Write a sequence for this structure.
């Protein structure tokens, strides 16, 4: 019966200029510089902490000689989440709170790419809270940098899930009284296998954390304090030596494979410690799925796809 | 058996007479744990292997343990379009099954009941229906040695039916072997014992036994399967290798099958934390290069609408399966309804064009899945497959598809290109086609896929001019699709008094209604529409041949008296002849209901 009206013929790839070009050996390529990896000029307020996170992402790409097409930059919605527009490379600006599942779809189906996700505290822990826990527990390979300003920036100063008690916002004019989420504890208890904390005022530290996160095989999470100068000015002065604060690194003797020690470290009062709190190796979702596939592929041998399907149809007779 | 006996053997000494029938409707009623679906499945498979057309109908209770359950199977030598309005035979396991389903039996029909459980009869019923009592429960216990309680009585009953219809015993034995042949040989032995006990039981009180007239030999083999299975395999044939979902009835079967099967083809299906994550993950995978699938039913579809709008805005291909059930909210999880048409066509904020297709039968589920993937790719758009609880769970036989020619490879092309603008306004066909991440672009200028209104590179814009141009671009590419869509053919004469318009699973009962009306001398025709959004062009030419146009659908008539599709057609064609025939009782259409309504409206 059914004729298929729209057939699956091969499609042109783009509009006018889809001219194929020859492949290029890595050795014939010039390493990327900042000008090659920056795109639109950021629309952030002057002085916003997010600038330094972006600058250090560029540094990471430069330093680690990553090619444009080897990474994918994904974000949800928020000031911080505008990130992909400012980066020259395949990017996706998805919906509020759902960047992690989108990135998971990319990561699982494309093992050849490294997926970086950037976003805000509201995106990560409020609307996207559920996805945060589940992406962490599944240990899906990607790097997630939450630019935590402890406020809703884009929507102009409402209470965020990380706003401290007493913080006065447009939705809590008398001061917030809901206990804030502790991103470190949340990440550790959800099963993230790389959990680190840094702050935008210490560029070398941000870069070191990003490098370590990228090299981690699994779900790597960084909380990066990133000041919103517009709606929560001075929020992180206590960790900025230039503002009279103190930048305290994770103690040398801390065992990063000790979950309880990491949890205790996360319990320190503000401004807390900076560095890698927790890092363990556990099979990634990507590896587990790949294993399921290779086991099944071994069983079907070298049958063509239609022949595998034919076997299923034979059982319906 | 709607066809009168065509031949009968004269009654011998005590032998019941044997009548030839061309089709029969058998309804089996019991509790869900009695394995009723299994008997139905055996009969359906047997019919498929015997060149008979088959269509089944089943209901299952929404509670998982216990509760009444039925399965109705219609087996015919000719074309079977519905599971049948009335049953010829009712097999009742309990008093409650007997009482609730006797009225589905046609007058003079046979009720075969378990005499261990069904004990109360009114004299009136005894004269209206032919009663045959068999101690099914106790005979089953006897057959398997008393240890197994009455588990296996479904197989015993299958034996009775096999006897009553003189079914092919070798083929049934083979089916039993396939089903029960496990490592433990006693399982199969018990099943065979039950079956043989039923088959060899002398149906002493039966006055009549039956034999099917042989069906016409079809070209090629027949396969027997459910709509959900056909759809899932269609997606695999289409080249889909990634899916994500969250369990909900009746969608779950599809995700379970894909989870099991995709790894054989190098793919994966991920069970997510919720429906929002599922669609988001599927969109991510789709963007990463190969059209992916998500799906749901009922409330899960509502959850997907924000991300669906993103796919529409960002122009990312995606297939979304909506196995409709009774709504709103948790609604009627195990009942049929076609009330998701509006959310499928319009769900979400903003102007977000998308494509909606509805399969009409189990077989069509397979082909619709392939078509949905191809439309999604060609037009870089989300496509919704609107199937329903009825097609999802029923079993039909159809000619095996040619898999070698149908299976397609849609893996992404990652070879480098000179230049790329994802939202090119001057593209010759006006259609966006993304390049997958991992593709090197010669200019060093890379695209962003986005839900913000954007320029041609995918960068945000607040320009009214660009919003106007991009909105038109997203709309016009699907107008182009409408031009490409085939205009559906009229079923029956192109001119007449009544045109019955159908979509989705209502096609079968409507065609049967038309056949009956025409046989009675009424000028009825039918139009089945598969492409619901956008509609194919040229429907007005079809409508012009009729005095009345009735859109028959399983949803509510709404404030203004029209079902969801009728309202869309009225808005599109401004044609007052278009009216609606609707119902929401959670059951498939009976032919009689359609004809009664249409006749009342033309009186
Ligand atoms: C579904 C949905 N709800 C609400 C919004 C509005 N909204 C946009 S960004 C945002 C909060 C942003 O806060 P955060 O994630 O901390 O990012 P920041 O702007 O502080 O970087 C909200 C509520 C939205 N875009 N989508
Ligand atoms: S509002 Fe705050 S977070 Fe947003 S750009 Fe300005 S300073 Fe940064
Ligand atoms: Mg914030």
């Amino acid at each position: 019966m059914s004729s298929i009206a729209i057939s699956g013929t091969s499609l042109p790839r783009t509009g006018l200029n889809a001219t194929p070009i020859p492949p290029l050996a890595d050795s014939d390529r010039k390493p990327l510089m900042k000008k090659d990896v920056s795109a639109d000029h950021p629309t952030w307020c002057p002085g916003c902490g997010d600038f330094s996170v972006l600058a250090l992402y560029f540094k990471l790409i430069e330093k680690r000689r990553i090619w444009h097409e080897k990474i994918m930059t994904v974000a949800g919605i928020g000031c911080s989440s505008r990130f992909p527009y400012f980066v020259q490379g395949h990017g996706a600006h998805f919906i509020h709170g759902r960047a992690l599942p989108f990135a998971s779809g990319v990561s699982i189906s494309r093992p050849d790419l490294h997926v970086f996700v950037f976003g805000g505290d509201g995106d990560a822990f409020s609307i996207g809270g559920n996805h945060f826990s589940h992406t962490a527990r599944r240990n899906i390979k990607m790097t997630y940098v939450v630019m935590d300003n402890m406020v809703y920036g884009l929507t102009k100063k409402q209470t965020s899930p990380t706003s401290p008690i007493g913080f006065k916002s447009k939705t809590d004019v008398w001061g917030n009284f809901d206990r804030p989420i502790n991103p470190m504890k949340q990440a550790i208890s959800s099963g993230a296998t790389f959990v680190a904390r840094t702050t935008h005022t210490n560029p070398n530290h941000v870069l070191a954390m990003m490098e370590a996160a990228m090299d981690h095989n699994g779900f790597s999470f960084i909380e990066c304090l990133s000041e919103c100068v517009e709606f929560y000015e001075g929020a992180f002065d206590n960790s900025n030596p230039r503002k009279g604060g103190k930048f305290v690194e994770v103690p040398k003797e801390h065992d990063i494979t000790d979950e309880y020690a990491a949890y205790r470290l996360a319990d320190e009062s503000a401004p807390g410690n900076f560095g890698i709190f927790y890092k363990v190796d556990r099979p990634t979702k990507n590896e587990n799925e790949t294993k399921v596939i290779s086991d099944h592929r071994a069983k079907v041998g070298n049958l063509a796809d239609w022949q595998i399907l034919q076997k299923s149809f034979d059982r319906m007779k | 058996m709607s066809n009168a006996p065509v031949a009968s053997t004269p009654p011998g000494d005590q032998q019941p007479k044997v009548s030839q029938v061309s089709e029969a409707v058998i309804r089996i009623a019991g509790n869900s744990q009695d394995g009723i679906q299994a008997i139905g499945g055996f009969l359906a498979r047997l019919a498929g292997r015997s060149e008979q057309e088959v269509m089944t109908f089943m209901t299952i209770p929404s509670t998982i343990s216990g509760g009444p359950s039925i399965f109705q199977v219609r087996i015919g030598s000719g074309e079977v379009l519905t599971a049948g309005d009335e049953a010829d035979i009712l097999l009742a396991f309990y008093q409650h099954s007997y009482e609730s389903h006797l009225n589905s039996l046609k007058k003079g029909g046979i009720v075969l009941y378990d005499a261990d459980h069904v004990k109360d009869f009114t004299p009136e019923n005894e004269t209206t229906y032919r009663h045959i009592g068999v101690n099914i429960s106790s005979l089953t216990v006897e057959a398997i040695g008393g240890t197994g309680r009455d588990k296996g009585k479904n197989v015993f009953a299958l034996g009775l039916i096999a006897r009553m219809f003189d079914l092919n015993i070798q083929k049934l034995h083979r089916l039993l072997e396939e089903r029960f042949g496990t490592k433990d040989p006693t399982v199969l032995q018990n099943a065979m014992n039950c079956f043989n006990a039923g088959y060899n039981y002398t149906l002493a009180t039966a006055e009549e036994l039956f034999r099917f007239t042989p069906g016409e030999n079809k070209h090629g083999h027949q396969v027997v399967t459910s709509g959900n299975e056909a759809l899932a395999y269609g997606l695999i044939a289409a080249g889909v290798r990634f899916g994500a979902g969250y369990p909900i009835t009746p969608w779950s079967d599809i995700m379970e099958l894909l989870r099991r099967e995709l790894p054989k083809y190098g793919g994966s299906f991920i069970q997510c934390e919720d429906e929002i994550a599922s669609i988001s993950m599927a969109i991510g995978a789709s963007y990463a290069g190969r059209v992916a699938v998500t799906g749901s039913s009922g409330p899960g579809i509502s959850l997907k609408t924000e991300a669906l709008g993103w796919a529409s805005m960002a122009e990312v291909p995606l297939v979304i399966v909506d196995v409709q059930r009774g709504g709103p909210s948790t609604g009627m999880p195990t009942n049929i309804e076609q009330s998701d048409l509006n959310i499928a066509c319009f769900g979400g904020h903003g102007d977000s064009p998308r494509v909606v297709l509805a399969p009409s039968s189990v077989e069509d589920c397979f082909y619709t899945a392939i078509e949905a993937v191809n439309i999604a790719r060609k037009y870089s758009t989300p496509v919704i497959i609107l199937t329903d609880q009825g097609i999802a769970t029923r079993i039909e036989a159809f000619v095996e598809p040619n898999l070698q020619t149908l299976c397609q490879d849609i893996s992404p092309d990652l070879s480098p290109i000179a230049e790329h603008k994802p939202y090119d306004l001057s593209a010759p066909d006006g259609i966006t086609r993304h390049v997958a991440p991992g593709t090197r672009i010669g200019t060093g200028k890379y695209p962003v896929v986005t839900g913000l209104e954007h320029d041609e590179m995918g960068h945000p814009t607040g320009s009214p001019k660009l919003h106007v141009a991009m909105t038109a671009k997203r709309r016009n590419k699907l107008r182009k699709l409408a031009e490409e869509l085939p205009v559906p053919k009229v079923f029956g004469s192109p001119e007449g008094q009544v045109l019955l318009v159908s979509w989705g699973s209502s096609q079968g009962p409507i065609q049967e209604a038309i056949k009956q009306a025409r046989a009675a001398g009424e000028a009825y025709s039918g139009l089945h529409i598969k492409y619901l959004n956008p509609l194919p062009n040229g429907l007005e030419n079809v409508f012009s041949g009729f005095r009345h146009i009735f859109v028959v659908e399983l949803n509510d008539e709404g404030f203004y008296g029209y079902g969801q599709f009728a309202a869309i057609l009225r808005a599109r064609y401004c044609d007052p002849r278009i009216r609606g025939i609707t119902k929401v009782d959670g059951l498939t259409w009976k032919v009689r209901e359609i004809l009664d309504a249409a006749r009342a409206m033309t009186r």
Q: What stands out?
A: Chain B has four domains: 17-218, 223-406, 414-484, 490-602. Chain B touches chain A through 108 residues (CB under 8 Å). Confidence is low (pLDDT under 50) at residues 2-12 of chain B.
